[in-house]
Write a structure and sequence with these properties.
The chain has six helices and twelve strands. It has helices spanning 3-19, 59-67, 113-125, 177-188, 190-195, 197-200; strands at 23-26, 30-33, 39-42, 73-75, 80-88, 91-100, 104-106, 134-136, 142-146, 158-162, 164-171, 222-223. Strands 1, 2, 3, 4, 5, 6, 9, 10, 11 and 12 form a ten-stranded mixed beta sheet that branches. Strand 10 and strand 11 form a beta hairpin. The longest helix has 17 residues, at 3-19. The two termini are 23 Å apart.
Amino acid sequence: MNANEISKMIESTCRDLFSLELIFHYNNPCVNTLGNGNKRVSWPTNCSGSVTAHSFGSLEQYLEWIRNNEFTCLLFDFSIIKVSYECFQAEIVGHNLLYWPCPVEFLIKPQDLTDVCSGIEMCIDSPKGNREIVNLTMRTPMRFDFDPKLESEEHPLIHLHTQFDDTRIGVQQAMSFPTFIKKIFRTFYRNKWLENSEIGDLHDQAIEHDESKFDPLTHCFQVS
């Protein structure tokens, strides 16, 4: 798959999920050429990145991403999906796939992104004082990275970041966007999966890549 094909796949998948009311809001992806000539598919943004270095998994980081539109889509429960793919011609040479369960529960449903931001701000200011409107849950992000350039014994070819930014749990296979979405719904939203057979019908495609050069580290979790 080349960058344009991946972009179209992400856009069509988001559009299908939106029609099923499984997505609250999504941004059409964009394709940018990097300095090394590779192309990156990601969310469109006017920012080069977060202005402030917030802690991994903090409410402030979640709020800044929503406020700056730094995401691919928000699911029906306001969980963030944020994905990027790097391509060399028709080969995928890296990806970053993040699923962040919404860190709060909205007791009054937001009508737009401004409402989402307002609810998060209220929870930051006073979690206890605003719990009739928004309830703090704080569930950890999960980010699956495919990064051949940095592969080493301590940096698995494909790995999962969760709980802490420097956590790298080895993962067996890179994922296309529809594959990632299917796994999220099948794992975390079983009722939605069972109610919407169309999710399972999304066209996914295997990502071919070389096997890892390093054996899994002992005494570390691995995900098959």
